[in-house]
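Throughout our pipeline, every protein is held as a single compact record rather than as scattered files. The record that follows is passed on verbatim for readers who wish to inspect the format:
___
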Amino acid sequence: MNDTPDPALSLARRPTYIRHLVLAALCVITTINYMQRNSLAAVQTRVSVDLQVSDIDIGDAKGVFFFAYALCQIPSGWLAQRWGGRRALALFAAGWSIVMGLTAIAPNLAVLLGARGAMGALQAGIFPCCTMILAVWYPTARRGFASAVLNSFMLIGGAVASVLTGLLIGVLSWRGLFAVYALPGLLWALCFALWFRNDPRNHASVNAEELSIIGASRSTTSAKSPAHSSIPWLKIMGSSALWLICLQQFCRSGALRFFDQSLPTYLQRARGQDIQDANLWTSLPMWAGVIGGMFGGTLSDFILTRTGSRRAARQGVAIGSLLLCLLCYTAAYQFAEVRWAMLMAGLGICVMTFSSPCAYALTMDMGGRNLAVIFATMNMAGNLGSAAFTTFIPRIAKWGGWDTALLVFAGMHVVALLCWLPLNPNGVIGEPAHETPDSKE
């Protein structure tokens, strides 16, 4: 009898890696998404001259995007649960890319405001869809990693927008840049709709071994919730954990907007940099955040695997990151030279982004069957913070100077830290409590 294993059979038993390709596809659209949304901040000084508007007017245009984005979070999460990630995300991506192209021909502030609002409403669906998809395609113990990768590509999108704008603004006008930035999203939407499947079992390239790896995540979540399933709104909105998650997200996301929405203008107005140098310097903290997010998510998953404790893995990592980033930002403020200030600010955002995958993974851990809606609620709060920050920081800078604006920035981190301290990361939001102490599920 020949006991030599059949090489073909052994190969068939090896897990495929379609789940990683799914994550890669989500990272690509996240990069495109952030290139498009950050494009206005990168060329703010040029747009203000061309349209004859003030920094406050441009701040309002950026704020309209985030208000629309925030208000459409729950509706888009609801649509994602009804339609499934494949249909919903492809339609959202195509829609916001079309609006991005139309923004390139905006003749005045009113049209710019309307276009930014429409883009915000359509982009609102990206992360409810992405989170719902990842919760199905990745097991619990790898959600921090997946969230970290996705979060890093948000910052990569901002960094790429800053670098490309700095390099191309001398060749293309801001209108030309906006038109160019619209094209990749349309191509991605078509490819994703043809290739992706909501359920891993329905993807032709996923074999049994890979299904066994990702199957554990299917016990509490679904790529597409049944249309008739009811959502326990009162239980969800009455959850103290959800309110704490939302408030920390309001503050963290709002404060993060300093880097991708206000930093280019700050460096030009307060530090005397030209538009090319300001955008290149702006990309530095974004790249640092990419490293931090990846490391933070990996660290969170490692701690969860070793200890089985959500408190240590999600809450502990987030608290530590917020404390350390405040120290780094305080040190950055002391440097008069732009180079050293940006290096220290980059270290600060690197450490701060440890907390981002913790928040994302926590919603996946606690979201259960209502994950898309719960994540959308958290993301709505985050974008209300972004809207408030981008709308009021130009006014605060005009009233009290950029030093006052930086104090507001620091204060938002303090509030986020205070929210994480009492947060209990165990249980499932909107579902009956049960006696399960710290657990991997």
Remarks:
- The chain is about 75% helix and 0% strand.
- Residues 371-420 form the longest helix (50 residues).
